[in-house]
Design brief:
The structure holds 2 protein chains of 2 kinds.
Chain A lengths: L1 E12 L2 E13 L4 E5 L6 H8 L7 E6 L2 E2 L5 H11 E4 L11 H12 L4 H11 L15 H14 L4 E5 L7 H18 L2 E6 L2 H4 L4 E6 L2 E7 L12
Parallel strand pairs in A: 3-8, 3-9, 6-7, 7-8
Antiparallel strand pairs in A: 1-2, 1-4, 4-5, 9-10
Helix pairs in contact in A: 3-4, 3-5, 4-5, 5-6
Chain B lengths: L2 H11 L4 H8 L3 H23 L1 H5 L3 E5 L5 H12 L3 E14 L4 E10 L10 E3 L12 E4 L1 H7 L6 E4 L2 E11 L5 H6 L2 E5 L3 H4 L8 E8 L6 H14 L3 E4 H44 L1 H9 L4 H37 L14 H23 L16 H5 L6 H20 L4 H32 L6 H9 L7 H36 L3 E7 H13 L3 E16 L2 E2 L2 H4 L12 H5 L2 E5 L7 E6 L13 E5 H7 L6 E6 L2 E13 L10 E3 L1 H4 L5 E7 L5 H12 L4 E4 H40 L1 H13 L4 H38 L8 H22 L1 H5 L2 H7 L1
Parallel strand pairs in B: 3-8, 5-7, 14-19, 16-18
Antiparallel strand pairs in B: 1-9, 1-10, 2-3, 2-6, 2-9, 4-7, 5-8, 6-7, 11-20, 11-21, 12-13, 12-14, 12-17, 12-20, 15-18, 16-19, 17-18
Helix pairs in contact in B: 1-12, 2-10, 2-12, 2-25, 3-10, 3-12, 3-13, 10-13, 10-16, 10-18, 10-25, 12-13, 13-15, 15-16, 16-18, 16-27, 17-27, 18-25, 18-27, 18-28, 25-28, 26-30, 27-28
Classes of the chains: A alpha/beta, B alpha+beta.
Amino acid sequence: MLQARQLTKEYQSGTHRLAVLRDVSFTIPDRAFVAIVGPSGSGKTTLLGLLAGLDVASRGSVVLDGADLSTLSEDQRAKLRGEKVGFVFQSFQLIPTLTALENVQVPLELRGDDGAAPRARELLARVGLGDRTHHFPNQLSGGEQQRVAIARAFSNSPRLLFADEPTGNLDSDTGAHIVELLETLNRESGTTIVLVTHDLTLAHRAQRIIRLADGAIISDAMVEPTVPAIVSNR
Amino acid sequence: MRLGQFAALAWRESRTARRRLLLYMSSISLGVGALVAIDSFASNTQRSVREQARALLGGDISLSARDTYPNTVNLALDSLRKEGVGIAEVTSFTSMTLLPRTGLTRLAQVEAVTPGYPFFGEIVTKPAGLWSHLHDGRNAFVDPALLIALDAHVGDTVSLGLARFVIAGTLASVPGDVGVATTIGPRIYIASTYVRETSLLLFGSRSEHRTLLKLTPQLPVSQFIWRFKSRLEQASVRYRTAAETEFNLTQAIDQLRDFLSIIGLVALLLGGIGVASGVNAFVMRKIDTVAILRCLGATSAQVLAIYLSQAVVMGLIGAAFGVVLGIGLQLGLPHVLADFLPVDVQVSVETSALVTGLFVGVWVALVFALKPLISLRNVSPLQTLRRESDAQALRGAKFDPMRVLVALIIVFSVVALGVARADNPMQGIGFSVAIGGAVLLLYGAAALLSAMARKLVRPSWPFVLRQGVASLYRPGNQTRAVVLALGFGVFLMSTVYQVQQNLLRTVNVKLDASRANTLFFDVQNDQAEPLDSMIRAAGHTIVQRTPIVPMKIVAINSLEGEAMINGDTARRHTRPRPSWVLRREYRSTFRDSLMPSEVLKSGTFHKGGTPANDLPAVSLDVDLAANLRVGIGDTITWNVQGVNVKTRVTSLREVNWSRFEPNFFAVFESRALLKAPKQYVILADVRGEGAVARLQRDAVHMFPNVASLDLTLVQQTIGRVLDKVSSAIRFMAGLSLALGIPVLFSAVSATRRERLREGVLLKVLGATKRQVGRVMLAEYLLLGVLGSLAGVILSLASAWALMYFMFKQPFVPAVLPSALVALVMISLAVLIGMLTGREVFQETPMAALREA
């Protein structure tokens, strides 16, 4: 379970403080697929950073699987991420010096797990890249890179997966394939997915949509099951 | 995370950065190489000295005296001979050598030896194996320099005074020889049996007597000293043991190593700065990867460990390369310093020096890499979502204890390196202050010049130049590190040249001031007039004719003998008189006027003489008076060839000893020494091509015992000696100059990304390849100019300080040599810069934009 409690994030801008997120509260149960949507500058990415423990809130707290992130140090949060959190980014964020296989292995190796390589190979095969394990990121297409990123995100069997505009840098067909992949993995492994996007069509693939504007939640609703399952046409 | 997984991740992650990291780390290679070479060379030399200590001396003990030994010593030698102690005698004196075949003359150092010399070590002749034939007849072995000077060949006959000798061969190696010495005075070895035949050792002739002893097992060195110490000291005979020779030499080598070590350590620390600036650029490239790793659960300690381990491995390779370089240099050093080494250095690999070099290199690379690497801890995983500027991404808390700790480690390391290489902690701290001071001073100069360049730039200047200056301030610029590294090389090299030029100029000025160019000495009383006439008859001018009277001190005030040492300390001075000032032979003169090279410091000079009823006046050199603990009004009694002459000190003079003129510790009033046996020194001004050589030849024919010196030749010799000294120092300075190369490569490579981006932007905006090239050229020219300028300015300051404080001479900047060094450095900077940055020309705007 993921809980946001009156989250506020402020930045010092010259002489005055600028609030990019104000009193945001919600709860996301296990195995859920939630989309956070909003226009540019609405505070989506800031919220994602706080929920994933990449940043600390000015006020309020985040409770991730029972752990209050505001009480944890940076390194304790890193450890928690390594154990329970996965990420998929718009710009893939693969380590350019590592092969696809090695990129997927990293979270497992950071935890000191045995059998990192076979598990990474298995995940790459599941995302359809079984034959490209030894390719470096710059030898892969955008869609392939994002698939590697997804394989990496699931390598540590996370309880929560945060996806930040995962189709933002991809063409529509590739994007559709990536979303399907995320849905399948969510279903099969029971991972909670928090998707951040400004693409409403993509957001409607989720079970629930939290809308942000000017740093505050303007709506938090379940998605009607009748909404056609079409993917972003970006 | 497990160690194996950690190592694997660190290794994989380093894939694309290995070459770059290695390049940064190579900055320390030269420093490590220099240290390894210096340490190995010093150990090699010291071991060779230890092994060859007895050969260096030629015996177990050497006795020496200016005079012939008194009876007490001769009797002791006789009894030693009866005890089976080997005794060999050497008489050394200077004399003119004349080659009758060519008519050429040259002043040489005559070494007349008895059979058995030397007891240890071997004199190698060319043709080989002929040394034992020295005593077969009137044979001579000479330094090759003498053959050249006389245009002689082996087999020629050479005249020494009234005797003639056949040159049987040349000297290839003499134990304890310092090569440079033969440049000053080439030697000629003859058998001592024939010294009398030469008739060269007349009244007042300067000669030194040396006796080598080969002791028996029954009479070890310690027992010899116990038995004979007081007898030898009373007779003013100096003695030296092989152990003392070894001690003195190893001390000297230690000092040489200390001096070279400072250069080596500065090179190493500059390398460290090069590493820090290279790794700084490396860190900026790694921000994205670190942010991803942090997202994936890596702790800041894990991140730091990954990059630190990469730095350590590359540092190890850089240091190992330095060690290999050091071994190469070590092979070269004995050749470079051959002229100054008294032993044949047996080169061997010194494991301790290699291990130390490796350790010090890795340590320096580590601590200097740590400085930029710790900022990677500040990279937030949030950078994956929202990338800030490099500086923002790396910014940490205002007070970072880790940063303070690293700064302390660096300071501690510099002090520890200094202390580890010094004899005592204080000296070590002095070293560290000197090293740190040198680096800080250069860094300050570099910073100041860079700031000035920025301030001076005007909008009206051409675009290319303005852009070049602007490049020096691009984010993550390496300007100071490069200027520092370039400046250091220029600084050392230019200092050497400045000092060399100034010393040479001083010699020239001194020679000009004396007006004379030929010096005759050992001129006997009855030879002075005829020689004088001969010189004048040839149309030359006599500049000075100075009488010389040898003498010794027998009493100061009412104190005689040993009582002089401590006698009146209570009355005037607290310290006893050093025994050497009381025992030495003084070669004094008499005249009633001051010379241009003398300045009266106190009292009244006996100008025109003193009343006949008073004690005759004597004027002393101020330093000698201080050593003798005498002042105006004190009396000194001198033994002048058996006659005691009591004098009163009436004045003290400061003497400029560096003038090419006869100068004296004691100048007597004429009436005191007029009747004393004396010899003369004559200074003549000889003009015309070949006139000096002709005059010297005629003088040798008429007065074989009279020695003469062509002062122009002396001047050339001094030039040659200075050149040899400088070339040895230049070797080290050249190394430091080379140090700039890897740092420059490292710095250019560190800013490659920015350079590429700028070049591409300029191309996109319509710049031609040529224009982009000119911007780069301007940048490297500026870097070269700034570095050279920093080095030259500091070299002028240090050369001035050396001339003023060490050589006590005025300093005149020598423009040409420094300009040449600067030009070389600027060319190097431009060449390396253009070579490394060639991809900026080659990349198309699109391809480069993608990469940037």
